[in-house]
User: What shape does this take?
Amino acid sequence: MSEYQQYLQERDKIDFFIQKGFTIKSVTETLNGSFVDFVNEQTEEKERVTLHVATAEGRKYFSVMILKQQKGA
Amino acid sequence: MADLRINLAGIQSPNPFWLASAPPTNSGYQVQRAFEAGWGGAVWKTLGEPILNVSSRFAAVSFNGQRVAGFNNIELITDRPLEVNLKEIAETKKKFPNHTIIASLMVEPKQEKWHEIVKKVEAIGVDGLELNFGCPHGMAERGMGSASGQVPELVEKQTYWVKEVAKTPVIVKLTPNITDITVTAEAATRGGADAISMINTINSLAGVDIDTWNTIPHVAGKGAHGGYCGPAVKPIALNMVGECARNPHINVPISGIGGISSWRDTVEFLLMGATGVQVCTAAMHHGFRIVEDMIEGLNNYLDDKGIASVMDIVGKSVPKYSDWGNLDLNYKIVARINNDICINCNKCHIACEDTSHQCIDMLKAANGESILQVREEDCVGCNLCSIVCPVDGAIDMVELPNELPPMTWNERQAALGTMACDADIIKR
Assistant: This one.
């Protein structure tokens, strides 16, 4: 799979969780990329999901989503 | 005809083209020839206690047929008595009263030494002084030149000593042989410098003769490091000028030096914050009359852009020069190959495949002809293909519309930093 295809998959997952009402709560950056923690505050159990974002474009993408999230807050 | 006159810290010059302190400004004969050719100013070869030179002093680096891509020298400051130089400066100034003569000075880092030479030189009438804190070879072994220029405290103190007695503007010439030139530039301004100039030459060894195993150049079989200049150093100099020009603590004019060989180079230095330029290697390579093309080219450039005075372009690119962390991570350009111009040499494909991001495909067109095509989604906009392409116009680097809003690394990190705080609060 090309890096671009991998990015598209990562972007789709990020979009999916955001559309489901999740927000990004924290990011852990490691040698293998970023682990992005999503929380859905709208659910009673405050559902949590962690995405591993490895591509450079994917890491840019969730960063833009964080900026949007913070501007919208 | 645009106004090419400059005013650098109160020093007037008929144009921004000065000869740098170096072999071309060793004598009145040479400087007068230069002024006749059209140079606006000259920084006289550094005055100080006359030195002894060695034989075999210069070496050049040629690259792929371009002679003097880089130039290396181990010549020291003037080897002539001060009174001889001063007499010739006075004669030259009398003949060319409207041209700029700056005296480059270098003495031991002692207050009385600086006071003595400043008073003697100013007494014969120069337009300004340039303190040589940059020469990297020979004199540095004696505690002068770059040995002084690498110690911010010495730069500040010696500048201060000169300013105690100087009546003309003082330019401090800085060495590039230092990690961060803004540190010594700031020291010069704290010492009271009216202007700074950069860069002096870079520590270098031009080469080694693989048959004799001698250094190039060598003096009876022995070599020593020299100072590197010429076109090869221009990018280094341009960055240092830009770094100083955008530094809010360095509020003095800059005289740009380093590989300037044409009017285009000159415009680049002026845009990046230099008020004028100093030239050496290009004059040594081509003679004083290269200044004719430089004047004509600069004048035409300004006229074409409708700019009345050369001073109007000084520093215009400085706001565009920043830290990497302030660049937009979401700005995107990609390569596009124009197959009607492409000669199918495949250099772009090889460069991309071997050393970049493997996004140029070799395909067959419907008519069976070989074509090269960029997979734009995989192209990172590195420019390598267009750099190695031997045909102008065969590869364009094209801006793509932004899919994402602008975001710098610094903005990203600030946003992530805020997230970390949030996470900490949640954990508690």
